[in-house]
Amino acid sequence: MRSSRRYERDVSAYNAVGISVARRFGVTINDLHTTVSEAGPEVLLKQDGLHFVEEGYALLGAKVADALRSFVIKG
What we know:
By secondary structure, this protein is an all-alpha fold. 71% of the residues lie in helices and 0% in strands. The chain has helices spanning 5-24, 32-39, 41-44, 54-74. The longest helix has 21 residues, at 54-74. The protein is flat. The protein starts with a helix and ends with a helix. The model has no long low-confidence stretch (mean pLDDT 89).
């Protein structure tokens, strides 16, 4: 898998700022970056380092569906 340390640092920094702003305004957060990081990007990403393998898309889809489901049930 192609890797770039600088790029990963940038993504982490952008996400941290985004999460901080979202929390300040009470916006619900569905942190897919952390989901991928914890599951292992080397397992979930194709060799190009950008697109996901089938299991990666399934994991992200389930995470999004769970978030939407909890929002709809609350709503």
